Amino acid sequence: MKIKYTAPLRGELAVPGDKSISHRSIMFGALAQGRTEVSHFLTGADCLSTISCFRQMGIEIEQNGPDVTVFGKGLHGLSAPADILDAGNSGTTVRLMSGILAGQRFSSVITGDASICRRPMKRVIQPLTEMGADIVSQQDNGCAPLALHPAQLHGIHYSSPVASAQVKSCVLLAGLYADGKTSVTEPVVSRNHSELMLRYFGADLSLDGTTAAISPEPSLTGQKINVPGDISSAAYFIAAALLVPGSEVLLKNVGVNPTRDGMLRVCQAMGADITLLNEDHSGAEPSADLLVRSSALHGTTIEGEIIPTLIDEIPVLAVLAAFAEGTTVIRDAAELKVKESDRIAVMADNLSRIGCDVEATDDGMIIRGGRPLHGAAVDSHKDHRVAMSLAVAALACSGEMEIRDSDCVTISYPGFYQDLQMLCR
Ligand code: S3P
Fold first, then answer.
1. In this structure, are 215 and 271 located in the same domain?
2. For residue 108, what are the β-bridge partners?
3. Whose CA is nearest to atom 4 of ligand 1?
4. What residues make up the domain containing 158?
5. Could you give the CA distance from residue 241 to residue 402 in angstroms, rounded to a whole number?
6. Residues with C-beta less than 6 Å from any ligand 1 atom
7. Total structural domains in the chain?
8. 419 is annotated as an active-site residue
9. pTM of the full predicted structure?
10. Torsional class of 6: left (φ above 0), alpha (ψ -120 to 50), beta (otherwise)
11. Single residue among 195, 226, 257 that ends a domain in this structure
């Protein structure tokens, strides 16, 4: 796909539903008794993979665009899948479902695409094995395909070496099937959607600092869930509006859970003009409209506890840094190397192709911003967040950007290019 600047971004947009919350609405809805009605569900490929895995296990799920009804059958209502479960490109599906599958009375195998089969799964195999699960990496390489067989799970306390919501959620979900309480402590609190939604469905879940604990065998009850807009998708329009002079956009109903909103805080520290309007804290997940106006940005340091709250936004923050005056240092973000692509290496390579002074480090990047940058042939490496970040960069570069494998945006944002074009008129 070729993209170049046409006009400032102006107007309103409601971005699609949050990916993390959409996945969980299907999973927890399937394990609850009765109907779960989901609105503003994200119809990206990742969340559709989760739907198809649960259909394979006998759960009826009606989907009409972003309106989804899950007919839950309770904690022990899943049936053995006839085939291998295919998570596609979705790490959330493989890791969270491993926790669920570990507690079932049937065997299963879960795998995904080439990228998924390279991503580290030891981080879930290890705690699940400690709980007594029978889970193996079929190629013995710590990656998917993962084969699971029935086993009695035991409640454990797990101290996770990484701040990962996927690991935390996996262990808590296995804890639903254990013979005692299960708790997880993280180095820093990662996104807490599982904790909030499991409680909403009726789980006995307690929180204490960076520890979440769950009691086994709750009776979960189907609920109504209105998924807020995904701040990780809004991030591209925030960045584009900040970078392109003369822009002003209103992003409606964006999720602003404090475990996810680090990008807003970093942008404001860089000098961004972002105003939160219509803040709504009435439900489990807070939301707001975001009014974003183009701004002169300066470099900053992004490190420490804020990292998990913006981990998926670092590629687009790197683009902002490339156009900001001065140096931006990103550190404590080694997790980027094991996302859909190695986002440190891939973003450093792409930014240098457009003329940016960027250095990849072991756990982040050093970006010396402010030079005029030019369009070039760049490569998404089939990573949706890289593709969308490069599309944003294209709007602030001179000339034309050619993005390889740009269609991978369907993973989390099928209508991304259309929405971008709609605002640039
Ligand atoms: C997610 C957690 C994050 C994030 C991913 C979605 C989730 O991964 O990068 O896009 O829904 O739990 P980690 O938990 O591995 O950090």
1. no
2. 148
3. 312
4. 19-226
5. 21
6. 20, 92, 164-166, 169, 190-191, 311-312, 335
7. 2
8. no
9. 0.98
10. alpha
11. 226
pLDDT tens, residue by residue, 92-137: 999 999 999 999 999 999 999 999 999 999 999 999 999 999 999 9
Q: Which atom of ligand 1 is nearest to the CA of 339?
A: 9
Strand bridging mode 33-39 / 224-226: parallel
Q: Which atom of ligand 1 is nearest to the CA of 338?
A: 15
Nearest CA to ligand 1 atom 13: 164
Query: Does 197 lie in the same domain as 310?
Result: no
d(CA 204, CA 214): 6
pLDDT tens for each residue of 190-211: 999 999 999 999 999 999 999 9
Whether the CB-CB separation of 354 and 376 falls below 8 Å is answered with yes
Q: Ligand 1 center to residue 411 CA distance, Å?
A: 14
- Contacts of residue 418, defined as CB under 8 A and 6 or more positions apart, other chains included, come to none
Ligand 1 atom closest to the Cα of residue 311 is 9
Residue nearest to atom 11 of ligand 1 (CA): 20
Q: Which residues pair with 367 in a beta bridge?
A: 328, 358
Point out the catalytic residue in the list 18, 261, 289, 312. Answer: 312
- Please indicate, yes or no, whether residues 39 and 177 belong to a single structural domain of this protein: yes
Which of 175, 207, 226 delimits the end of a domain?
226
What sign has the CA pseudo-torsion 25, 123, 331, 371?
A: negative
DSSP state of 216: S
Tokens 């070496």 label which residue?
161
Distance CA 264, CA 260 (A): 9
Question: How far does residue 182's CA lie from ligand 1's centre (Å)?
Answer: 21
Q: Are residues 193 and 239 in the same domain?
A: no
CATH number at residue 345: 3.65.10.10
| Ligand 1 pocket mutation, candidates 311, 343, 388, criterion most atoms within 8 A of CB | 311
CA of 152 to the centre of ligand 1 (A): 27
